[in-house]
Design brief:
Length: 338
């Protein structure tokens, strides 16, 4: 097995973490022996262990992007009637009937042992939750709005990727950021005003297209589920717009893609319980109370963290999901709890 530390992928950055999961997913499809981990030195670089036959990581990513031209299982398109006529839209806020059709198509493909469309469909949304306009309520990571279309932006990102750019991204070289539209998954991409479909080059936005493509390829590891009439995305907590938080773990021992998927399902619950315990401890401390209850809370918190460390999870990260009045989203800078 060969281990490579990817200095351009910071696991404490939401985009970097999602990209590392996407890279693991791509490599796992070629060898189930592939493993992902992160350095504990404060830089939180992602590292990959894989079979020697998978040495050309940049070539694998570039080839994956190149092969994804044309019809793909993850493409969701539907017709939208406008004043100028019928428009083809590539976004996740589809009318319920169009999204149900995509789900049914995904099930048909799954029955033929072609699971990718169902994996993306599970990440995109549900046939239950609706937005304020009666359309499908998309996953929590859907940050485009107004005239921008999420899957159209993904396609533009995919079409720009080259092997050289992937190498620049992985090696953290100066050329990793280039002018163009981004998916707003990097906290550094935050803007307080809507682009409203303007030329992103004119607006000064830049993108790390290889990492954004990999993050998109990792979306199947973050499925969404219906809770009542709401949609809940894996790793995300909160009920109201200003409460949403994305949580994810960092670990030092190599983990397979199957293990990572299971780990992601647990993390939000871990962090919520830890935060509740910390709030109780702070309340006792403010009141100057020392009691068996306070000692027990401190013991339980330390034990929970120690148990995760024993399983090689050395940190948990939390990033606020911010929304503008126009509906655009962004991740805030992550808080890392070690």
């Amino acid at each position: 097995m060969t281990r490579t530390v990817l200095k351009g992928i910071n696991g404490s950055n939401p985009l970097g973490f999602m990209a590392s999961v996407g890279l693991l997913r791509l490599l796992d499809a070629q060898s189930s022996l592939t493993r992902l981990g992160f350095t504990e030195d404060g830089a939180f670089h992602a590292w990959i262990e894989r079979a020697p036959t998978l040495n050309d990581l940049a070539g694998i990513v570039a080839s994956d992007a190149k092969r994804a031209v044309g019809p793909q299982p993850w493409r969701l398109e539907y017709e939208k009637e406008e004043k100028r006529g019928i428009k083809i839209v590539a976004d996740l806020k589809a009318p319920p009937a169009a999204f149900s059709q995509y789900l049914n198509s995904a099930i048909d493909a799954w029955l033929k042992c072609q699971p990718e469309q169902s994996e993306y469909a599970a990440a995109y949304g549900t046939d239950v939750a609706r937005d304020g306009k009666g359309n499908t309520k998309p996953m929590a990571f859907h940050f485009t709005a107004a005239n921008q279309q999420f899957l159209k932006a993904v396609e533009e990102t995919r079409g720009r990727i080259t092997k050289e750019w992937v190498e620049e991204s992985f090696d953290d070289r100066d050329g990793k950021m280039k002018p163009g539209m981004n998916l707003r998954w990097d906290p550094g991409a935050e803007r307080s005003r809507a682009l409203m479909g303007a030329n992103p080059n004119d607006d000064g936005t830049t993108a790390n297209a290889p990492l954004e493509w990999l993050a998109f390829r990792g979306l199947p590891a973050f499925p969404s589920v219906p809770i009542g009439n709401r949609i809940v995305t894996c790793g995300v907590t909160g009920r109201r717009q200003n409460e949403f938080r994305f949580h994810w773990p960092l670990w030092s021992c190599g983990a397979s893609y199957a293990t990572v998927r299971s780990l992601l399902l647990l993390t939000a619950d871990w962090i919520e319980k830890d935060e509740q315990t910390r709030r109780k401890i702070e309340s006792y401390s403010r009141n100057g109370k020392r009691s068996r209850s306070l000692n027990r809370l401190q013991y339980d918190l330390e034990k929970a963290i120690e148990e995760r460390r024993r399983r090689s999870v050395f940190a948990t990260c939390t990033s606020e999901i911010r929304r503008t009045a126009q509906g655009f989203g962004n991740f805030g800078p992550a808080q890392v709890q070690t």
